[in-house]
Structures are given as C-alpha cells and as structure tokens.
Amino acid sequence: MSISSNVSRLLRKQVRPIELPKRWTHSVAVIGAPLSKGQKKRGVEHGPAAIRNAGLFERLSKIGCSVYDVGDLKFSHVPNDALYNNTVKHPRTVGLACQVVADAVSTAIGTGHTCITLGGDHSLALGSISGHAQQCPDLCVIWVDAHADINTPLTSKSGSLHGQPVSFLLRELQDKVPPIPGFSWTKPCLSRADIVYIGLRDLDPAEQFILKKYNITYYSMRHIDCIGINKVMERTTDLLLGRRQRPIHLSFDIDAFDPMLAPATGTPVMGGLTYREGLYITEEIHNTGMLSAMDLVEVNPLLGATSDEVKATASLAVDVITSCMGRTREGDHIIVDELPTPCNIYESNGEEQVRI
Ligand SMILES: [Mn+2]
After folding, report:
1. Residues with Cβ within 8 Å of residue 205, at least 6 apart in sequence
2. Whole-number Å distance between alpha carbons of 17 and 276
3. Nearest CA to 261 among 248, 251, 271?
4. Residues 166 and 147 sit within 8 Å (Cβ to Cβ)
5. Nearest to residue 137, comparing CAs of 217, 191, 211, 192?
6. What contacts 72, CB < 8 A, 6 or more positions away?
7. Which region among 24-28, 292-296, 328-332 has the lowest average model confidence (pLDDT)?
8. Which residues are catalytic?
9. What is the pTM of this model?
10. In the Enzyme Commission scheme, what number(s) does this protein have (predicted)?
C-alpha cells in the first residue's frame, strides 16, 4: 500500500469535537513527525507525544476545530548511512523521512485540511513545505526561529540537517546545493521573496552572507526590539500577501521563544520572543485567513531540567498551535446570541416589593 493511501485511510479516523460551538470550524489534520536524525540530541522524537499529551486535541476541539489524527509517521533508519562530504549526518535517513512527511502533508492538504505537523527536528520542514507546495505552488513561508536553518550542506559546520532545510527549498541557492544522497526527490519550491524570518538571533557567518546576498527578508530580535512585533507583522503580511492573497506555511521552531519559556529544546538561545510576542505573531497569521499548514518543531522532552520545564514547553507549543487556529487572548470567539434575562422576581413577589 502506498504512503498516500495509508495516510488517506488514517485521515478518515476523525476525532470528534468535544462540543460544537456555533462558529465557523477549521478542519485540521495533525501529523506526528518524530524525526530526530537531523540533529544530534536524543529525545526530540518524543516531541509529538509531548505536544499531544499537553492537551492539543482537547484544546483544538474546544475552539471548534474538527481534528483528524493522522498519527505518527514511521521513519526507517537507512543502514550504512555514511556522512556526506565528511560532514553531513544521516543524509539518506533524513532525506527519506522528509519524503514521507511531504507525502503525508500533500495528502492532508489535498483532502481539504489545514495541516499541522508536529516535530521532531526542523529538517522535517523540507518535507512539509515541499508537500504543501505540491498542492499550493504559490505558497509563502513565515519561518519563526532563533536560527535561519539556511546553511548549505557545504557551509554547515555541525553537519546537522536541521540547520539546512531552507537551502534545499530556495531556487536561488540551487547552484550552491550539491546533490546529496537521499535528497534526489527534492525540488526547490520557493523564491527569496516568498519567505520571511522572524526571531533570528544566532546566525552562522555563511547564513548571514546568504541572507544579505540574496536579499531575504528577516526580522531579528533586534528588529523586534526596534520597531515592535506589531510593525514586524504588518510588514511581513504586506510583503507576502500585499500583492496577492496566497496560502501561508508557518514553520515555528519552539526555540524562537526565550529559553525561560521554552527550556526543553535542543539549541536554546537567550533573548528570545516573549509569550506575548509569540502569540501576537500567531494571532496575526490567523487573522490573515490564509494559514494553510504549519510545523511546530524542536520540542525535546528529554532536555527539560524538570518535568515542569517539559510541561511548560509542550504547553507553550499547544498555545502557539491553538492561537494559529483561532484562539484569541480575549476569549474563544464562540458566538453568543443573547444574554440571559433575569426573571422579574419583584413583580411576582409582593413581599420583596414591600421591602423596597
Ligand atoms: Mn529551526
């Protein structure tokens, strides 16, 4: 049975909303992508379970989403997966896993769902964005992250593929990306003007060079400090959607948040987004009405110092996702038709009237 038909079958397994509020409902497919070979630390493969256990489905149902649980994708470890160029680790395993992710995301979006992919490490975005682009070739990407993840296999110092997915996606970089084993299926689907970064604060020298040379728009933490998150979002949506409405792919790395808020992650960097800035980003993205797919990646439950730190990180991930799907800080927008009127006790109760 092909991966597509497997996914289609799984998509029919609907998780019923707890209650159906009177409002327009999102139909969302949730795909677990327990991918960890794009980086070195153990535990990020447990990210999808941690986010599910933090109440994701209940919270989505509560705001009126119909949730289709695709379950966790199965990735196989390719034996004898030798380093590429003495640096890049597990290329065949990660390449194959991204292909599985691409197929699942493409099927979910093709079936009419908004697609949520739970990581897993950030290399999976190569798969999720490629799969999304198969259905929506004119998509744009908002990449919220402490890192740009735009090293090429030739500039990466760590050799970890979670720091490289964007280089495979950009057309402008194709003459700089070698044909590495496991990635022959990939096809660049973005141009430099189709992506905006938010939250950057830890760039490698080659990444800085790429961002400048190809004139890729990014709002670092310094930009957020200078102009505020509201201006950042206004400019981001103007840039990406100003000329035409098109589907948005949000790739949200939990390490965009300050490590005080999201400690259970592999590459924390001080000075990140506040809770309010993070949710402002997701609320504005929801308000465009154009969010078509998102990734929530790099939650690593083995890296919290305490179980409270793990819980806080996973619950933050759930807040980000539900905010993208329409939860507002003012309250969930369930339509109330009328206020209850008290029955007039004074008309029916003579005694009370006398007392007044
Ligand atoms: Mn990342």
Report:
1. none
2. 28
3. 271
4. no
5. 191
6. 32, 33, 34, 48, 49
7. 24-28
8. 122, 145, 147, 149, 162, 253, 255, 298
9. 0.89
10. 3.5.3.1
Report the Cα–Cα distance between both ends of the chain, in Å, rounded: 78
Beta strand 291-297 with 140-144 is unpaired
Closest Cα to residue 252, out of 313, 197, 184, 203?
197
How many domains does one find in the chain? 1
Distance from the alpha carbon of residue 345 to the mean position of ligand 1, in angstroms: 62
pLDDT digits (tens, 9 = 90+) for 152-192: 999 999 999 999 999 999 999 999 999 999 999 999 999 99
pLDDT for the residue 165? 98
Q: What is the CATH number of the domain that holds 316?
A: 3.40.800.10
Residues with CB under 5 A from ligand 1 (ion): 122, 145, 147, 149, 253
In terms of Cα–Cα distance, which of 264, 322, 332 is closest to 294?
Answer: 322
Expressed in angstroms and rounded, the spacing between residue 335 Cα and the centre of ligand 1 is 37
CA atoms within 13 A on the CB side of 15: 19
Domain span at residue 319? 3-355
Tell me the pLDDT band of 331, cut-offs 50, 70 and 90: confident
- The confidence band for 336, taking pLDDT boundaries of 50, 70 and 90, is confident
63 three-class SS:
coil
Report the pLDDT value the prediction gives residue 344, as an integer from 0 to 100: 73
Q: Please state, in angstroms and rounded to a whole number, the distance separating the CA atoms of residues 300 and 42.
A: 8
* pLDDT at residue number 250: 98
Q: Would you call 219 helix, strand, or coil by DSSP?
A: strand
pLDDT digits (tens, 9 = 90+) for 292-319: 999 999 999 999 999 999 999 999 999 9
Residue 41 CA to ligand 1 centre (angstroms) = 14
Q: Give the residue ranges of the annotated binding site for Mn(2+).
A: 122, 145, 147, 149, 253, 255
CA distance 56 to 249: 19
For residue 268, give both structure tokens: 């924390």
CA of residue 145 to ligand 1 center, whole Å? 5
